[in-house]
Amino acid sequence: MTVHARTAEERLADRIRPSSQDLPAPDQSEAFGAAFDAFGDARVVLLGESTHGTSEFYSARAAITRRLIEHHGFKILAIEGDWPDAAEHDRYVRGHGRWGERSAFVNFPRWMWRNREFAACLADCRRWNASRPAHERVAVRGLDVYSLAASVTAVLAYLERVDPAAAREAHRRYACLSPFLSRPQAYGARAQATGQTCEDEAVDQLIGLLEQRLAYLRADGDDYFDAEQNARVVCAAESYYRAMYRGAVESWNQRDAHMFDTLQRLLTRAGPDARAVVWAHNSHIGHAGATAMGEAGEFNLGQLCRRAFGAQAALIGFSTDRGKVMAADRWGGEARVQTLRPALPGSWEAILRAAGRTRSLLSWRWDDDLRAGVSMRRLERAVGVIYRPDSERESHYFDAHLSAQFDALVWFEETQALSPLPGRPPEGEPDTYPFGL
Q1: What b-and-e string marks burial along 334-370, b requiring 16 or more CB atoms within 10 Å of the CB?
Q2: How far apart are CA 257 and CA 251, in angstroms?
Q3: 280-310, pLDDT tens digit by residue?
Q4: Which residues contact 407 (CB under 8 A, 6 or more apart)?
Q5: I want to staple 414 with a disulfide (CB 3.0 to 4.6 A). Which of 93, 203, 220, 323 is the partner?
Q6: pLDDT given for residue 428 in this prediction
Q7: Residue 325, CA atoms < 13 Å, CB-side half-sphere
């Protein structure tokens, strides 16, 4: 009789199995969210996703977010989306200002934030806020850097309302960027080729706002904060689109540094006891220093949060083995439901599949033995808004030391695709986007 010699992968799956906590379905919101109470004392809880187009990841993050809001005092939901688009959602959930005057998340990949799963989360936030005073309401904020045109428009609109003379000066400064607002990549190419930039003008406009900070704050603090942040986004976007032509590492780092700076400003403004939930891709919320990204010189939001907040930052990854996923074949292409292939042999996802849990939470934050058990380097899946199964290994896997990357991992063995909202939303419903990973 031949005795099967157990592989290292099988032994690791056996080690993981008893430490995995079975989870209910995410639609059982209370029970699912309660499994994450141990993270409720964190200052920042970062919730990831190994794909942008998976329904269960959104529903699970919604259930966790609801629990953190209702039982642990979290007041900020920050997403991997642009500030002006998220501001439209914020108006919806907080009843702040006039909501519905502009479309949000209209660019590719629109479906990433305009889907039934995220709309349900926003509706939960709106219901929670409805019976609470303004200072206790949950805010929805965007951390990303792409909204050059929308942010310029927002700054100008604010100044035209509160300070027409300052608005005329802002129009003069932003005129440098005006030819490129609909094609910011062309601005980066021009700057790279000629050395001519609009950096001074963008920075001068931000300084102009800051110099009038006290006067504008007295008029309306929320509106001023929104305008200031949009002016910061213009500076960050101007720099980001130039960096695109100097290399992927520099542009990635500028983007994630902006995300972190925005998150810090949100927490500072909300007070010393403020707590935030962040929704972003695993590649942003896991510690980049524990992955091939870090070896290439990239850092990310999760790494910066760990450095700033220490154990007060909880980094929770999400992953799956197989199923369906919403994704495009190319940048700017039509999104469609695609088949997500089973994970590659030897990957972390293959190990978790072998552990045999349908839905589970694997947390090593307080388990030194488990942390040591998942500390080795293996492949990890990362699917963004584009899925190329024909180049699965090259396009969608990178090396990662799991226990140093995250504090915990949420696992779904098989998952389904997001459900984009069709056409224009009906009146009273949120028009629910960011780019890349």
Answers
A1: ebeebebeebbeebbbbbbbbbebebbbbbbbeeeeb
A2: 10
A3: 999 999 999 999 999 999 999 999 999 999 9
A4: 39, 314, 315, 316, 363, 364, 365
A5: 323
A6: 47
A7: 27
CA distance 286 to 47: 9
Question: Each residue of 343-401: pLDDT tens digit?
Answer: 999 999 999 999 999 999 999 999 998 998 899 999 999 999 999 999 999 999 999 99
Q: Are 315 and 305 in contact (CB under 8 A)?
A: yes
Residue 433: C-alpha distances to residues 196, 313, 376 (Å): 31, 25, 34
Beta strands in 136-208 (DSSP E): 139-144
Q: Which residues contact 362 (CB under 8 A, 6 or more apart)?
A: 16, 19, 20, 21, 352, 370, 374, 408, 409, 411
SS3 373: helix
**Per the confidence metrics, is the pTM higher than 0.70?**
yes
Q: Give the whole-angstrom CA distance, residue 176 versus residue 67.
A: 46
Give the integer Cα–Cα distance in Å for 298 and 290.
Answer: 11
d(CA 141, CA 278): 9
Beta bridge partner(s), residue 46:
278, 315
Regarding predicted confidence, which is higher, 276 or 331?
Answer: 276
Residue 248 Cα distances to 252, 324, 429, angstroms: 6, 29, 37
Backbone angles phi, psi at 101, to 5 degrees: -80, -20
Q: For residues 408-433, give the mean pLDDT.
A: 75
Q: In whole angstroms, give the CA distance from residue 209 to residue 195.
A: 27
Separation CA 52–CA 434 (nearest Å)? 10
- Cα-trace Rg, the chain: 22
CA separation, residue 150 to residues 103, 107, 298, 309 (Å): 11, 11, 28, 31
Instruction: Inform me whether the pLDDT recorded for 423 exceeds 80.
Output: no
Residues 6+ apart with CB under 8 A from 16: 351, 352, 355, 362, 370, 373, 374
Q: Which phi-psi region, left, alpha or beta, contains residue 105 (left: φ > 0; alpha: ψ -120 to 50)?
A: left
The per-residue pLDDT of the chain, averaged, comes to 92
Around 131, how many Cα atoms within 13 Å sit in the side-chain half-sphere?
A: 4
CA distances from 420 to 17, 109, 280 (A): 35, 11, 18
Classify domain 8-144+250-415 at the CATH class level: alpha beta
